[in-house]
Amino acid sequence: MVGQPVVLRPWQREVICGIYDTPTRRAVISFGRKNGKTALSSFLLLLHLVGPEARPNGQLYSAAQSRDQAALLFSLAAKGVRLSPTLRQYVVVRDTAKQLFCAELGTLYRALSAEASTAYGLSPVFVVHDELGQVKGPRSELYEALETAAGAQEEPLSIVISTQAPQAGDLLSVLIDDAGTGQDPKIKLFLFTAPENVDPFSDEAIIAANPAYGDFLNPVEVRDQAESARRMPAREMAYRNLILNQRVNMHSPFIARSVWESCAGEVDPAAFEGPVYFGLDLSARNDLTAMVMVAQHEGHWYVRPEFWCPEVGLSDRARRDRAPYDLWAQQGYITPTPGASVDLSFVAQRLADISGEVVLRCGGFDRWRMDYLTAELNKLGLPYTVLNKVEVPPEGLPDGLVLVKHGQGFQDMPPALDALEAELLNGRIRHGGHPVLTWCAANAVAERNAAGERKLEKAKSTGRIDGLVALAMAMRVAMTYAAPAEEYVSGGLVAL
Q1: Which domain holds residue 104?
Q2: Per-residue pLDDT at 483 exceeds 70
Q3: Measured between alpha carbons, how far is residue 383 from residues 293, 364, 370, 398, 467 in Å?
Q4: Which of 297, 298, 317, 448 has the greatest number of C-beta atoms within 10 Å?
Q5: In CATH, what number is assigned to the domain containing residue 425?
Q6: What is the pLDDT of residue 64?
């Protein structure tokens, strides 16, 4: 269709009318790949550069996560100018600087990328955030710089246009969820995605996420991609994310998002009036220290996690891991401890405090740094018994607080993961939607050895899984020591 006049499709008209018919501060537009996102973005840029929406001396920007993506959007906008006898009389194309300039109006458009140093001296009246779904984690320095720079404008407009991000904690997902609440009428959402309850390889699923399917999106090619994903399960997650525009983790997490969310019921405080079991995962310098408590009540396991992280470098760690540690700390979901590594005296004191609040019966722990923690427990005079492995002693569980050695390799983790997975799939866990624990669950994948046994690994280097590891250990300990002695079987699993 190169060289032909642009004819808006009905779905494009609905999006544009939805943005411009009523006041809009931010519009989030999301659909599958190759449905003309970048082309539509370039036309909206021209609309504000030299069209009816242009404002004298207005600054316009497009923001992309890479130089190549930024160059692509600029290139399409520049081609639109060059192919139009009318526009090229008024718009100067500056290829080297990736700028478009209208001297008569004084309007200037510039393409920016996250790979360049962020400019904070801008005052944009219009911004397109292109492919924001590529941002990992809830923050982007370029996005924040441009959004906060619009404060000097009377009616700034931001367009976020992208295929969905894979995880709920990523920036685009946060923006979509916020827009979906409808609390701010100036924030609009135009989301084309395949429903999760339909066959992902059906035409119904494809059409729901791809409004250009059968028009300027080649249906034969898309069907081939669907069939390829059907034949090769390893490609299904990418297909669901990029073609069906679903929010799915490319790494196939140990726990499916839908299963985890189905267990996000409120935590009943009454559950912790009885015996409480826990898993404790101590950290290296950059990890979280996690303690996850579980207690059984009326057929459900209720979960109460606690997290600690070093106070020094908290903001730097948040940027590196692309996770809002500082915000979680302000909200009370993480407790910072003084220094550059987690101070285990704080963890020991918290264990002592919790022991005074609930019946803290038994906990599983990895051997890493445990000697340091037990030394702190000894200083506090907190009595405890250490067991060398997860099994019921012939004389039964000792009185008081019991600490059980629980590795995180292929020897100890398979029964722990089996226990956790079974309870999640059967809907017998209530974790309350704790954001840090949910983030850990999204980061965790199961690695298998030659015997088919599983342990947890991180899907990416910046992700943390400490909370889910602690939860798995807690569930194995709880299901081993909470049942009557006659129900114990080899390996600590309960015969239900």
Answers
A1: 10-191
A2: no
A3: 19, 16, 15, 12, 25
A4: 317
A5: 3.30.420.240
A6: 86
